[in-house]
Design goal:
The protein is elongated, with a radius of gyration of 55 Å. Helices cover about 40% and strands about 25% of the residues. Helix 3 packs antiparallel against helix 5, helix 5 crosses helix 6 and helix 5 packs across helix 7. Among the domains are: about 150 residues; about 290 residues, Methylamine Dehydrogenase, Chain H. By secondary structure, the protein is α+β, with helices and mostly antiparallel strands.
Length: about 625
């Protein structure tokens, strides 16, 4: 009947019925055990009761036997012997009965003792079984409470699943709505593109028609001028020269007549060629008329030129740096080769030169030190002075001849390698400058500040050519061919077109952005944030390709820098405990963890362009060269 009831119940009650089966099974086993234990005592209890009854009877007999000798006078020995013998009627004598009863009493006492011992043993066993029963009942109660908790949790999870399904349905409806809107917008875009192409074709046709009409007008004018010239030549040829003129003018007249005749012959030939030319329906390829394809090429060139140049009106080509050699395969660092106390206080920034032999470090002591990497050692090269505040960022141009640094005195400063004092000061920010980077175009740079602005600079004139207002503190910037990427304190990465004035894209992250690093091919962006994670963003699809995290890795400050390897296969960052973490960009796997020289938080790291060396700097004034 229970199976039938379970089969007939609804689907929602099946788990409850199944949960009740094991309870019934346990109760059935407990009842079976009680029946088994009870059977063992069913024979013992009546026997014990009979033994007690016999003991009471023997006690009464003993009392009577003890009273009888004192009341009855002692008979003579002969008479006692007579009495002790059985009479002719077969009645046993009292002495015999007394001995017999004493023997039976001893035997009963022995049996009673044994049974009492068995009763004690059974009582102890029963107590043990009772304890086990209580323990199992306690476990059963705990399991029932656990089952109740699990059922409650299951109900909550079922409710959460229902809520999530409702949210999914709402999101699916919103997605369908967006898909429909996207389809409509794509259709509208296609219509606009078709209209634009048709307008372009009409424009080209109008240009070609106008060019043909202009050529016709020019040819008419040319033909009219040729006709007039031919008529004048004919009139000149008909004129006669008098021989009776002055002798000194004779040669001149003859020469003029000869030239006139030659011109007439030449113009006759030109007129014949013109007539033949106008007899043909179309002009030759050397004519000045514009063909349809040529007009299309001209219009496209104008449009491409406008798109390429933006709002500028100049036609001078942009001067660019020579490209830095690409590293084919970077070498993973294994151990620290050289460790120095490079600055008087914490070191905030580090950067390699394009030749990988020159290194720049900047710290809170307002100094920039240049180092030569020679044979796995750091040798002091030069000290750049003149910074008005702590150095927050250091960058070297692709030629390796200039050093740009961001400082806390609301400005960025420019040095020329080989000169100890600052060459230019880029002032204009109203708060600390947190990032300063060279652009790929010569004599241009970009700075970011905590005053919520990003500025572009013309280094030739030390002039701010553009100011971009943002909504949050800027912690780092990187520059591509035509884009500027900035990381902010509001957990967002913003993209700016260097030829426009608006933000083209915003990518949110889960923590305050501390640094940005652009791969050499400008296809991937590495961001480090205060949520202790590194993210690789694919710039072709504007999505997060990889997320790097590790046990023990933690950003030590708001300016912790992480970088790509020069070949773009690895990501490197320093942690708060002085360790360096290296991840594989393709697999997301943690390749290695380097520990040793740093006892304080690592602020910045740099990977040489050759891929052979790594440098790390920390808050304890140390600079470590890894190989």
């Amino acid at each position: 009947m229970e199976a039938a009831a379970m089969a007939g119940s609804e689907g929602s009650c099946v788990p409850v019925a199944r949960a009740a089966l094991w309870k019934r099974h346990i109760m059935r086993q407990l009842r079976q055990r009680d029946r088994t234990q009870k059977v063992l005592f069913l024979e013992l209890v009546p026997a014990y009761n009979r033994l007690l009854e016999k003991a009471e009877l023997l006690a009464k007999f003993s009392e009577k036997l003890q009273l009888e000798p004192s009341e009855v006078p002692a008979p003579h020995a002969g008479s006692w012997e007579r009495e002790s013998r059985p009479d002719s009627d077969g009645v046993t004598s009292p002495a015999t009965l007394k001995v017999k009863w004493q023997q039976e009493e001893e035997g009963l006492r022995l049996v009673c003792g044994e049974m009492a011992y068995q009763v004690v043993e059974k009582s102890a066993a029963m107590g043990t079984q009772q304890l086990q029963l209580e323990e199992r009942q306690g476990r059963l109660a705990a399991l029932e409470a656990r089952v109740a908790q699990l059922q409650e949790a299951r109900a909550q999870q079922a409710q959460q699943v229902e809520e999530q399904q409702a949210k999914n349905l709402a999101q699916r409806a919103a997605y369908e709505d967006l898909r429909v809107r996207t389809g409509n917008q794509e259709a509208a875009l296609r219509r606009l593109q078709e209209e634009a192409s048709s307008l372009l074709e009409r424009l080209v046709q109008l240009k070609a028609r106008a060019a043909i009409e202009r050529n016709l007008r020019l040819e008419r004018r040319e033909r009219a001028s040729q006709a007039r010239m031919s008529q004048e030549l004919k009139k000149a040829a008909k004129r006669t020269v008098s021989i009776s003129e002055v002798p000194d003018t004779l040669g001149k007249g003859i020469r003029e007549s000869t030239e006139t005749l030659a011109l007439a012959a030449e113009w006759d030939s030109l007129e014949s060629e013109a007539c033949e030319k106008w007899k043909r329906p179309f002009r030759s390829a050397s004519a000045t008329s514009l063909t349809l394809s040529h007009c299309v090429d001209v219009v496209k060139g104008l449009l491409d030129f406008k798109k390429r140049r933006g709002h500028s009106i100049g036609c001078v080509p942009e001067q660019r740096y020579q490209s830095i050699p690409v590293c084919v395969a970077a070498q993973l660092p294994v151990q620290a080769q050289d460790v120095l106390d490079a600055h008087l206080s914490e070191v905030n920034a580090v950067c390699f030169g394009p030749n990988s032999n020159l290194l720049a470090t900047g710290g809170a002591d307002c100094l920039i030190h240049l180092w030569n990497v020679v044979g796995g050692r750091l040798e002091a090269n030069q000290t750049l002075e003149g910074a008005g505040g702590s150095i927050t960022s250091v960058d070297m141009d692709p030629s390796g001849s200039q050093v740009l640094a961001a400082t806390y005195n609301q400005a960025a400063q420019l040095w020329k390698v080989g000169e100890a004092h600052s060459k230019e000061t880029l002032s204009g920010h109203k708060d600390k400058v947190t990032a300063a980077k060279f652009k790929l175009i010569r004599h241009q740079a970009v700075t970011g500040s905590r005053d919520r602005t990003v500025k572009e600079w013309d280094l030739g004139r030390a002039y701010c050519s553009r100011t971009i207002n943002v909504l949050s503190y800027c912690n780092d910037v990187v520059c591509g061919d035509h884009i500027i990427i900035s990381g902010h304190n509001d957990q967002k990465i913003r993209f700016w077109d260097s030829r426009g004035s608006c933000c083209t894209q915003v990518i949110p992250v889960q923590g305050r952005v501390t640094s940005l690093s652009l791969s050499h091919d400008q296809l991937h962006l590495l961001s480090c944030s205060r949520d202790d994670m590194l993210k690789v963003i694919d710039l072709r699809f504007s999505n997060v390709r990889q997320v790097f995290r590790a046990d023990g890795f933690k950003c030590g400050s708001d300016w912790t820098k992480a970088v790509f390897s020069p070949d773009g296969h690895y990501a490197l960052a320093g942690s708060w405990d002085g360790a360096l973490y290296i991840w594989d960009v393709d697999t997301g796997k943690l390749e290695s963890t380097l520990r040793g020289p740093h006892c304080a938080a690592v602020n910045a790291v740099a990977w040489s362009y050759s891929g052979s060396h790594v440098v790390s700097v920390d808050q304890g004034r140390k600079v470590a060269l890894w190989h």
